[in-house]
Amino acid sequence: MTNKLDAxxxxxxxxxxxxxxLNEQGLPTLLQGPVGAKNIPExxxxxxxxxxxxxxxxxxxxxxxxxxxxYYNYLVELNEVEQxxxxxxxxxxxxxxxxxxxxxxxxxxxxxxxxxxxxEEVLEPYKVTIFKLERQSQIxxxxxxxxxxxKFDADELSITRLANAxxxxxxxxxxxxxxxxxxxxxxxxxxxxxxxxxxEAHQLATDNFAQxxxxxx
Length: 217
What we know:
8% strand, two-stranded antiparallel ribbon, mainly alpha, two-stranded antiparallel sheet
């Protein structure tokens, strides 16, 4: 039995000399497996991609611990079968002279260990979807800085608002003031921006949008 434990040494309790700690049945004790695993397809469907690498690593480890648990159950069954076979009843002679023998139980088969998957391999089926979500996140959180140092939100809605402001105030001179809530002040706080600054912010925002959207699209 002991040599069969080599396959799960990384998953069981070891003593100070790195030998398996066995119970009276010659079976080991499994260590605590990973916790906190998440349903990756569900996270992606909800657009929650911030910690996918962490959860992909957890999923890979969980797969290995799932195998370790199956292997432990195999050892339990193997131990029971070996004990049963070692204590088979003696053959019984019938009145007709025939002999009845109890057949030994077949030994169970050890479960095959799955390959250890990398984070990239776990996430490969969702690669395209993740890329699109990341690209959309970049657009949704984009900020541009104009030559005067002011920062403007550059998401799709903000681009539309900038464009609407320019359409509304098309008759103003470049030096005229258009109050605007920039990205570097508190929400709802309006500061004076020139029309020229709004034009520059709109140009930078649309350029950033085009570059981000075209990236590997």
